Amino acid sequence: MAKQRALVLLLLSVLISALAIWGAMKWMNRQVEKRSTRQTFKVVVAAANVVAGSRLTPELMRSVDWPAENSLAGSFSDAQPLVNRIAVVTLGAGEPILEQKLAPVGSKAGLSALIDPGMRAVAVRVNDVAGVAGFALPGNHVDVMVNIQDDQGKMVSKIVLQRILVLAVAQDAAVKDDVKAKVVNTVTLEVTPQQAEALDLARSVGSLSLILRNQVDEKAAITAGVRKADLLGAPEAPPSQPRRPAAPPRHSQNSVEIIRGASHTTANIP
């Protein structure tokens, strides 16, 4: 009896396993059929990493099948029109090449292709401290702080520009695979013409420092600047001196005191 029960259980387990395998195979076949019948279109993608500011060549591009339901605005189906176009952002291998990621037709390779219309590129000399110890990389945003003398001849540090894009550090306009800190002599910033004027004036009247900020922090900081007195604190007021009691009035030598009972009067002698 026990052997028959064990045999029945074994047959049931084999049957259930067979049904599970059959169901899995049917599901996989349906997925393959869906993929085979899914509509696709050709999209040009980067065949290798493309550094921002570099020129596209046929070796850097290839075409792949892209699902039709995932449309890409600004994509290309043919790589020929993209030859000699300039990438304004770094493209990873396999990333679709879109019109918004390219400089206008006829642009030259280099830093000028990375500057947005209406903006300017200004180089600022920095040292290992002013350059945020080499951690300011292309694509980062920084604040610019100047240390100058105010109208009273007192030193003051003040943030004059905020959320400024770093275009290049030294002669590198793209982030390399090695992102270790690198101390450089110059940092190139993207500014508006008015910001360029303010930056040039600040550079000529004081010393500049860069302040690295979070990439997603767009909130402007409102400060009044810091002076030497703010660092040392306000001087303490000297301790107040205790007031001396008023001296009793002195009688004139030409006066006489008259005592009448409990009353006292003073009379002047002519």
Please give a structural write-up.
There is one protein chain. Strands 3, 4, 5, 6, 7 and 8 form a six-stranded antiparallel beta sheet that branches. Strands 1-2 form a two-stranded antiparallel sheet. The chain has helices at residues 2-37, 193-205, 228-232; strands at 40-46, 61-67, 120-125, 141-149, 155-169, 186-191, 207-212, 226-227, 255-260, 263-268. Helix content is 20%, strand content 26%. It is of the alpha+beta class and 270 residues long.
- Succession of helices and strands: HEEEEEEHEEHEE
What is the residue-averaged pLDDT? Answer: 81
Q: Which term fits the overall shape?
A: elongated
| Strand portion | 25-35%
Number of strands: 10
Structural class by secondary-structure content:
alpha+beta
The main β sheet shows up as:
6 strands, antiparallel
Main attributes of the structure:
270 residues; six-stranded antiparallel β-sheet; alpha+beta; elongated; two-stranded antiparallel ribbon; 10 strands; 2 domains
SSE map:
Layout: H1 2-37, E1 40-46, E2 61-67, E3 120-125, E4 141-149, E5 155-169, E6 186-191, H2 193-205, E7 207-212, E8 226-227, H3 228-232, E9 255-260, E10 263-268
Antiparallel strand pairs: 1-2, 3-6, 4-5, 4-7, 5-6, 5-8, 9-10
